[in-house]
């Protein structure tokens, strides 16, 4: 029973042919309204897939295909960091200087673009903006002002997939004040906090807890 049949008065409610007639004539309109109601979910950044994400990208202002050739990200057996749930499938045009990002990597870029567009430009709120790029809280991200017109960005928690490492190294997730250069991106070599002295939290920890950091630009040739 659709929403229009539910409005039938008690006088006609017991007449099957009347119910069927109303159902047959109103079904296309009920289906159309149901489809329109679902548009919000279809184009929600956290739920959209495939061409829906492409449409969001046109609105947000960044495409799925990036110009830089990204190497060392494709699925491979017996290659550390490129196995199941780590490496990406190679696309048709990936060897021609263009890389089409998968849905999850593209979603990450779109989220960063949205946050950058809504950022107030201050260092005080920058760490929250960066953390919003990875809302699942499996990866923690924070920035440090080097006080020389450069800043460093650190990623702790779970290491990122190879393709996300590369798009970060190529600067597609750069969120920074005007005139400031990002000197380096450092990511943990294993799940956990980065190694550091005089700290013990989800970002930094000492011996037996903290992990060595890896320079993303070095490991991705970014």
Automatic annotation (TrEMBL):
It comes from the Bacteria. This is Bacteriophage protein. It comes from Serratia oryzae.
């Amino acid at each position: 029973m659709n929403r229009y049949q539910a409005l039938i008065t008690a006088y006609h409610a017991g007449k099957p042919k009347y119910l069927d007639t109303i159902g047959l004539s109103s079904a296309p309109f009920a289906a159309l309204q149901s489809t329109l109601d679902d548009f919000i979910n279809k184009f929600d950044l956290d739920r959209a897939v495939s061409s829906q994400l492409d449409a969001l990208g046109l609105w947000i202002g960044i495409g799925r295909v990036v110009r830089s050739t990204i190497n060392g990200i494709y699925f491979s057996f017996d290659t550390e960091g490129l196995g199941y749930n780590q490496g990406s499938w190679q696309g048709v045009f990936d060897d021609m200087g263009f890389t089409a990002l998968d849905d999850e990597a593209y979603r990450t870029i779109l989220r960063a673009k949205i946050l950058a567009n809504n950022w107030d430009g201050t260092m005080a709120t920058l760490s929250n903006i960066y953390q919003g790029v990875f809302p699942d809280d499996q990866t923690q991200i924070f920035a440090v002002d080097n006080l020389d017109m450069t800043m460093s960005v650190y990623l702790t928690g779970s290491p990122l997939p190879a393709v996300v490492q590369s798009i970060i190294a190529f600067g597609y997730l750069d969120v920074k004040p005007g005139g400031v250069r990002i000197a380096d991106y450092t990511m943990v070599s294993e799940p956990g906090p980065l190694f550091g002295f005089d700290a013990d939290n989800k970002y930094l920890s000492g011996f037996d807890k903290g992990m060595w950091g890896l320079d993303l630009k070095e490991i991705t040739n970014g």
